[in-house]
Amino acid sequence: MLSPSAEKLPSADITTYQLERGVSPWRDAWSRLRRNHLAVFGGVCVLVLGICCVLGPLFSPYGYEQTDLYNTFSPPSSAHWLGTDQLGRDLLTRLLFGGRISLMVGLVATVVALTIGVIYGAVSGYIGGKLDRVMMRIVDILYALPFTIFVILLMVFFGRNIVLLFVAIGAVEWLTMARIVRGQIMSIKRMEYIEAARSLGLSTTRIIFRHMIPNILGPIIVYTTLTIPGVMLLEAFLSFLGLGVQPPMSSWGVLIKDGAERMEEYPWLLIFPGTIFSLTLFSLNFLGDGLRDALDVRSAKD
Amino acid sequence: MFRFIARRLLETIPVLFIIVTATFFMVRFVPGGPFDSEKATTPEIRANLEAYYGLNLPLHQQYLNYLKAVVLHGDLGRSTKYASRTVNEIIADKLPASLQLGSLSLMIALVLGLSAGVLAAVKRNTKIDYFASSFAMVGICVPTFVLGPLLVLVFAIHFGWFSASGWYSWHDRILPSLTLGIVYAASIARLTRGGMLEVLSLDYIRTARAKGASEARIIFKHALRGGLLPVVSYLGPAIAGILTGSFVIETIFQIPGLGREFVNSAFNRDYTLVLGTVILYAVLIIALNLVVDVVQVWLNPKLKFE
Fold first, then answer.
1. Are B178 and B168 in contact (CB under 8 A)?
2. ipTM given for this complex
């Protein structure tokens, strides 16, 4: 955009002119994000769902494992807003409770993936040379492996425990993050401020974590947002196969599995969890896409 | 190119070796064994069973025997669950259904995804584009295990057009392949649209237009080749996804395929069957990835077979 020259401006406008010049990249990105309706809708949805899942169960008159055998398979009503399941458990309560688990798996496993991916990619990109070649070759090879199969094996063999679920999923999802971070690190490695930091004698760790990573936060944030739905999908996939979260605990994958088994007579058991889960994936994907456009990180796309 | 393929093939040897070794020891070190569920096995019967499968030998001996049998004879051993059958027989029995499901889904994904993507890019910002993009959105946000049951609910139970389970006639095959295909069709459509839009704005397309080439020629002859690149690099992950995605589809639609067998074998601690299927899937995925890489270089001369 062409900025008008200062002399032509009336004196009253000079302050606004100066304010406009002081817009930081983050604020600029924020204003672009706000104009993207789908992304805003996604962000609001995620926020509302998150708050409902965290606080909702506190206000529910039912417990997530509280059975009521006189009221099995009751359709949505004023007592049970979304109906009840085969043991008379309140579907809404279970849905909110399951949301806690699903969202938590999404967050924790993404953090695991993020940590591994960023450190691996940063080291590989910054040090370069032979080490970089070997490290990236390893990533290439790992990409070709049937990882889902290993996660399934892990879950079957080691007792389907939820901590393991986090670690297993996180350990699978870090590869793309490592690639993106490496590319970004390589592109800023030769910049003057990094040379300056090096000539000041700073340690490699300090240069990477204090000087480089803050400068590539954009792509990292974007890709993190896009990893969360992938992780949640994998959790639901495992739960659907009976390998994830175990009853009486619930997660969205568990509820969808239960619903799919009884959808002929009681379709709401499938439709409500399916809708909420799809809505969450939709929101996270569009929030991620919006962030990518706002932060303008095209290179991270492939 | 031959050197490229040869080098890649050589590389897969250590990779496969690591997979076999890791899976072998992982399976052995976990709690529980293949004969735990058998009711009232006396120690004698158990000892006999273990001797029959060679499980009484020292672990390294078992491992070496297994490697030798696999490498020299392609023999994956006997199933510890179905005592009368070898793993090779089970795979030969169950793999065809999975392969059919996979290739049908991939075909649906490519045909639907490419046509939707090209159409959306060419008719950019029209109703057609919005329609195709919303279709892609549904595919990306509705996972297979929601979509599958919903399709069954509507088309099998309500309308009765297709069957809800089994794998005998084309009637049974439509819903499962569609369910698995649509998800990948959606991603392919998005990638195609993006790739085509980028290519269509390049100078050489304008040149082609200026020279008076027909719109169809411009799209199919000039633009598609470049526009397909993102799709081709996505095919590797997509194929792996379709292969593993079939676990869920086979469960939903009760298809007698290898995916369902694999999950069951893990539950049953069927050591040999687990190992055999993991090796098979690894080989399949690695081989298909190699094909994808070759196609990618063929489409994009800027990349060279290094």
1. no
2. 0.75
